[in-house]
Amino acid sequence: MAPPEEHSGEIKEDSVAAASSADNLPISTVVFIIAMQKEAQPLVNRLQLTEDVDSMFLKGVPWVRYYGNYKDLNISIVCPGKDPILGVENVGTVSAALLTYASIQALQPDLIINAGTAGGFKAKGASIGDVFLVSHVTFHDRRIPIPAFDLYGVGLRQAFVTPNLLQELNMKVGKLSTGDSLDMAPVDESCIIANDATVKDMEGAAVAYVADLLKVPAIYLKGVTDIVDGDRPTSEEFLENLAAVTAALDEAASRVVDFINGKSLPQL
Ligand code: ADE
Fold first, then answer.
1. Coil, strand, or helix at residue 194?
2. Is the confidence at residue 20, as pLDDT, over 90?
């Protein structure tokens, strides 16, 4: 039931005024969520961040945080760290969602930036080395063919809209589809095509789910390491291009950071 007219009017005006005055302050705290340490390291070095040895996370998690001030920004880069048994990085949606939740709780960021590598579709204009600014995210491996659950599974969410950033940085824009596999089964491919995605990763939509729940604006930068509708094996192409694409991602992320510095969210 709707609240009485006069009350709803008053509360709304007050809360809108409070929200917009906070929104108009310069962005202060930015958290990068980056799945692989190799993807994060160039930006950690460039921003001269320090590893947090006295972890703010619960004891036992392998998550790693780098932090520091860059210009007027307080920046953290968080990574899900390594699997304690296998020693490989904790890629994928489960770690990404947990890490996003804990980082928002601990750091209360004004903005989240999920940066990482992705597979790209040449049929949608992606080439190796492109860095995309993502417009929307979806999942492609949560197929639940029951009304409403089907849409819940797809989990379509819009990235925070940044027209000025886009114009200034002149990046390619595309939709992102997320799943927990590096390869692409035919059923995933059909879903990705239905999702109209240009890039495919393993974390973005999971970060978006949490950021949306906790009302933190989030943007997504995805560097293309492999062409998924090409003829090369994905894992081979991914490993071959990882270092070069990570450098391109670092360059794009640092330009984003420089653009964000001193601006409020509505100015992005
Ligand atoms: N990250 C880099 N390439 C990828 C791909 N093809 N699928 C999912 N995540 C990726």
1. helix
2. no
